[in-house]
Write the structure tokens for this entry.
Amino acid sequence: MRNVDLKELQHILRQMPVMAEVHPLSLAFLPDEVRVFEDAWQMAAELDAPMPQPTVPMLAAQIESALQHRLPVVRCTHDPLTTELNRVLRKRYGLIQAHILRQSQVADEIVRRADSEAVALMLVDGLPYGDVKRHATQWLANTTPVLVDGVSITEHSMVRIVGKPPLAQQLFDAGFRTCLGFTYWERAQEPLTDCLFTGFGDRVRKVKSFDEVLAGLEDEELRGAFVQIVRTGLDGAAHRQREMPNVAVMVADILTDFQRLAAVFERKGVSAWLHLVSDHGMLWAHEHNLQVYEFSGADHPRHYEHAKQGEHTLTVEFEGKEFALLEYPYLRRDLRATEWGMHGGLSFEESVVPWLSCHVERQKEETT
């Protein structure tokens, strides 16, 4: 099978139908005129139909060995999960949504995988998929890109991840009867915390460090437990800070804590599915040539708390209310001196987040 880049693939498509091994999101970069078939046999049937041959480019996103004698086969090496996705994200949003796991689907996937003795979910406040890809390549095999299908802000995204009914309730019904919660946020001052920990009762602890989380778990029976942790991420470092944040170090710290969490279950001999999901990514100002779309005193630089029609906006809904997202690279206002990064808009950096998952096997007892 020959490797081709996206430009060469388009060149071949202008000449003949093709079967291609291609990343589903790369299809969003192809011209609108290209007809994409999920089934190579369906494309072959159209080519064999007793009627004039189609004049539009045709691509089968499936390799069928029985058709290789008839159709050229290529592997497209294009990687769509880069900042290049911003070129097509708003325009081809529907297609992209159809070919990537959405944030609102994560809870169902966690429940579907819950075939272990325990489940743990670490909710991270601000962690872009792109920063994991750039600074922690060793984790990519365990990482699924997730599209924030709405406003990329904590108040919306955390609720979207936990789901309705809440993940704790779904897992309780699946047999995980103990709920253990840990949060870096002040519960009395954060209504969102009460929402995220619905069903946990008094089993939610306010912690100041991940060491406190691990110490708390050491004292608990973890079989049959669902553990939910809200951990600070990159969000806090992006606002009101004098110094530019060291993103690589912060990403490494988050993933180290995830490893330490796994070690607790291993040490206690409990099999578990462990998940790490971020609420939103981060658009780092110093890495991009951002442009002010309008000059306003808006608090939010990347989204509107109402619907707004425009050539650079996308309207989404959350709990019955409409919001508008600004596409990359536009801002509603100039950034403040202490704003190193932002979120809330529509971009690869803000809207594609990581879902890390790993399975801890129950240790077999040694026989003598």
About this structure: DSSP finds twelve helices and 20 strands in the chain.
